[in-house]
Structures
1.
Amino acid sequence: MHHINIPIARSEDLVIQELAEEVLVYDLKTDKAHCLNQTSASVWKACNGENSITDIIECLETQMGNEVPEKLVRLAIDQLNERNLLSEKVPQNFAVENRRQVLKKIALASAIALPAVYSLVAPTAALAVACSGIVTNCIGCADGTPCDVDMDMIIGMCVGGFCAGD
């Protein structure tokens, strides 16, 4: 068991796609897709099992070139925790009712984007449209449909609307 102030990002049963400004995480266990904005993604990546909250704050300050309030990091950890993106549950930092007040205070005092994690449930294979042959776009295709990764003839499988290579 790790110390509660050292959160660990979950890595099992996830398909991760990094984009320029955000990270998309597809949870194979729950069929949910999560979009982490840059702030939440940075916190998640810093949750390596070795970094304390203070270390995570320092990582973000170095990366973003701005002062990072502790409440901002704790808020991001609450969001990641709620969506099961941490390997172990951690105690909640803020009651849900208090979050709006915390968000307002942070928004007024910080030059950094507020942490945000948007989630949606992906359609199950039974509801998804069946695609035939090897596709280049997995949107609407059933999970497990063969797909061409980046159109370079590396064959992957559709997972939650994305083509995942080996």
Note: Strands lie at 14-18, 22-27, 32-37, 117-121, 146-149, 154-159, 162-164.
2.
Amino acid sequence: MIIAWDFDGVLNRNQAGGRYVWEDEFTERVGQPASAFGAFVFGRPPMVISGEIDILDRLEEWTASVDCLLTAREILDYWLAADARPDGEMIQLIDALNRAGVRQVIATNNEARRAAYIADRMAMGARMERVFASGHLGVAKPDPRYFRQITEALGSTPEEMFFVDDLQANVQAAVSCGWQGYHFTEATRADLIARLMPGSLRAGR
């Protein structure tokens, strides 16, 4: 089995009450509402999330069109740091799985710069066999091509893949590609941990 972890909402607790926690101080720090940032940077083609345009280039466009308190580079650095909220309980689980020799990867919808931040600054690259990001793959979940590329890159079969994501649509897409899927929520967190803990895996639970 190869466990493919979604990042945000599973390994990274960057959401609370239906909002992203980085939004809380965004207006005060940047001088523009978080909604305007999100709409301009992520909501228009060419798409940042699939790597069609570099996020820093898109931010340069945005800061040139509105009054901001920070430069494009400063906004990117602030956003990356504010959005880094690793889930300690899930980190303990993946570390335990690593000690047991279980193969693990990250399968995330993120552009290339944040994917690098996750891998390097958040040290997830050291914990995972690979960090697969939509910005590198050129396609985002729930597109079936996303899952096929990961399967091929790992030299695995779809049946070997166990995918954990907090969005049901992504889980369903993975299952339609032959992967095993698990919908992660706060209600299913304890069940997932019990199911994946190395002792449980050895017992065939």
Note: The mean pLDDT is 95.
3.
Amino acid sequence: MNQADRPLVLLYNPRAVFHTMPLGLVAIGSALDRERFDVRVIDGRFEADPRAVLAPLIPRAICLGISVLTGRPIADALAVSRGAKTLRPDLPIVWGGWHPSLFPVECLAEPSVDVTVQAQGEATFAELVERFAEGRGPEGVRGCAYRGRRAVPFPDVPFHATTHSYVDSIGPIVEPPRPLIDADALPPHDYGLLDVERYFEAKGRRQLDYITSYGCYFRCTFCADPFVYGRKWTGLSPTRIVSELLTLCKEHAITDVNFQDETFFTYTDRIDELAGRLITAGRPFSWAGTLRADQASRMSEDLFARCAQSGLRRVLVGVESGSQAMLDWMKKDITLEQVFETAERCLRHGIAAQFPFIVGFPGESDESVRASLDVAKRLRAMSPTFETPFFYFKPYPGSEITQRAVRDGYLLPESLEGWSEFEIHDHAGPWVNAETHALVERFKYYAALAWDEAPLWKRPLAAIARWRCQRDAYGLAWEWWVSRRWRRRPALS
């Protein structure tokens, strides 16, 4: 069947400030029968006018699927959904991704959204597409929610009455969740759905995003993953991972792989086999992945060495807090000793590391924030290849801490427009006072200068920055004000 004769499935990735490949859309697109369906992925981040790109395709589409993250991408998802409905009111529009997984019913309050998909979406979306191709609806498809007819009690009739006690009503229907599917049972991701070169250009390197697992076993109370995946995990076999990556390396001349797993180092024997296979293949690319400090403490020195030999260049190790009491409170299930042990091992094996921190939790003390700054200083002083980014806690929906905050009176946005203004990275929440916010912002500024390998002309400034960080001496911060004023100057025409 010619491409033009096959039913068209449109997949849209909303605009965002980062250029990670839209692996969720690639996954659901790869799970469709490509002999039967023409699948197109449109990435709004690369289009000056995404709706103009979609408009000529919508007349022959059987559905439009949109992957939606909480925050700014919602605004673009809304604009595209509403525009598509204006062109074709009968077109089924399906939202998937993190926000619809957390708010399956609330997203359906938007008239342009017909179905939401929760958690792992490959099988659910494939079944929906089959239904749409047959002219049927989503009724009975596990793992989704939709608006449909349901029987509800008629309020003016006594409950014990048997005649006309119930009436049909249009309302949200949530189907039972779909069990987590073994990752090896899912088809390979077809990167032919993407213009891979555009992502390489945006990243500034030939770096491929790749995911080897779904879910997470851990229970961190600031994270929504336990809510979405129920603390379950499934991963690809090392044999399949290396086989697929070697093929992709030949096809796209990749030089680096960024594993996008929530917890890449979940099983040490899996990592050991993966590293061994990459070494045997001649270390075809460098790679990076997520590593918990407790996982690192269980890894042998030999395994660290094998990972480095296989191309491991960087790990991301979530520290979250420099206070052990705070770590215990958020159920992170790591110790600060494990964090420094991980850092020392990375240092010995020449592996760079990012150690993210989160401050500004409800009820967090100033002492706890300062403890995080102190731990970050120690880590940054160990190596110029160590980074310690700081983020402010924002009550991300689905997390246990957010649920507590809501019980204590915190108001989450009540509309999709409100959620589109929800900034999860840069801005402090109401639990951070002005003094603490200023302290953290000054530290972030100076820490970025203090321990990096600076050129000769910049070393005096780096020395001043180290002195300030080590003493928390940020008064008369002339460098801060000069740099802020310089950044605000308009560009010369």
Note: The longest helix spans residues 366-382.
4.
Amino acid sequence: MTSNLRTRIAAPDHATAGEVIRIRTLIGHPMESGFRRDATGQAIARDILVRFECRFESALVFAADLAPGTAANPYLSFHFRAERSGTLAFVWRDQNGAETRDQHALVVE
């Protein structure tokens, strides 16, 4: 199951071998905890992302488990040592198993 949430990836396109680069991600998601009520007093259904993973050429380089207390539009930042060229693959998974995917090519010189 896939979803089409808006994602943003901020990572360099080029790096020098051995350079530590900063990767920043943002996904447009309400992260609704299920504890709030709407204007009519009805409970707003829970809708959260539960997992984020970043892989470089299939090797896991960063992962985070997310919880109901995570803010809407989760922003994550982490570092990665660039050793060779390849593709960074990003996956956000929600509570129902739906996934949003994005990728970024990295050229290492």
Note: DSSP finds no helices and eight strands in the chain.
